[in-house]
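hey
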């Protein structure tokens, strides 16, 4: 009876973990929104996440079953017999080193393409590399945006005709775009949860970040690095427009900023 109680005690935790995992989608504890990502790169990142999740669940169940088997058989040994000591098993140790090693190597190579596409500028999609739409400067406690004048390219340094805005980042939907991310003071993190994009803004660096919003809409843009007392204020929006509306918005912004000699949106 005592043995059964302990068995149930040890079994309860992995079973509870599996029940919670199974309930996760229903309780909406998974990815934001309906669980699907809003960007093509996000889909690939989700695929990697779920692949790793499946592998870890298999390993988790395997190790728990092994643990329970050992506990059950060892606790059932007659008490009047001499204790038996194990000095390890070479064959088993090789097996349980080689298999996880092989899995880790597989994951390391398998994710390389997505990692490169996400982080390494020369591996960005061609369209993203030419579509540099804004410079985003994080500062305590807002996102400062600099867009090039309509029809112009974004230059490294501010140009006459550049347009300025705060917090809400406007982009065309359905097209890969790149922003240059900077920080004016401390470290911040540019986070688009529903697009699965996250990049630290590091003082002194100008970091290219590309993404593509699949559909027009508004997506949360938040700072994911505790950057001071007003960190919470850095909740903004990524506004993805249909391409023609995006052009219209940019023209309007230019008109607002320059036609009457001063910037209303600055
Ligand atoms: Cu911040």
């Amino acid at each position: 009876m005592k043995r059964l109680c302990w068995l149930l005690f040890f079994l309860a935790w992995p079973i509870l973990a599996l029940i919670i995992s199974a309930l996760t989608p229903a309780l909406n504890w998974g990815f934001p929104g309906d669980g699907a990502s809003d960007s093509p790169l996000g889909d690939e990142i989700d695929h990697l996440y779920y692949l790793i999740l499946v592998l870890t669940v298999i390993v988790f169940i395997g190790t728990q079953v092994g643990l329970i088997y050992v506990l059950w058989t060892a606790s059932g040994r007659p008490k009047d017999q001499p204790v038996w000591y194990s000095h390890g098993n070479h064959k088993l140790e090789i097996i349980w080193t080689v298999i996880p090693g092989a899995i880790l190597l597989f994951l390391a190579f398998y994710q390389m393409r997505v990692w490169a596409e996400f982080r390494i500028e020369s591996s960005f999609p061609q369209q993203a590399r030419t579509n540099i739409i804004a410079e985003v400067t994080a500062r305590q406690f807002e996102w400062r945006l600099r867009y090039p004048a309509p029809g112009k390219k974004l230059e490294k340094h501010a140009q006459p005709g550049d347009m300025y805005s705060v917090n809400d980042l406007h982009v065309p939907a359905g097209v890969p775009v790149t922003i240059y991310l900077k920080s004016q003071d401390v470290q911040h993190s540019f986070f688009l949860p529903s697009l699965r994009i996250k990049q630290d803004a590091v003082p002194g660096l100008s970091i290219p970040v590309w993404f593509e919003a699949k559909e027009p809409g508004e997506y949360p843009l938040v700072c994911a690095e505790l950057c001071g007392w007003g960190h919470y204020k850095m909740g903004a929006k990524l506004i993805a427009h249909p391409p023609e509306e995006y052009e219209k918005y940019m023209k309007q912004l230019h008109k607002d900023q320059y036609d009457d000699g001063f910037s209303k949106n600055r």
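Strands lie at 132-139, 142-147, 163-166, 169-172, 177-183, 188-192, 197-201, 207-211, 217-223, 236-241. The longest strand covers residues 132-139.
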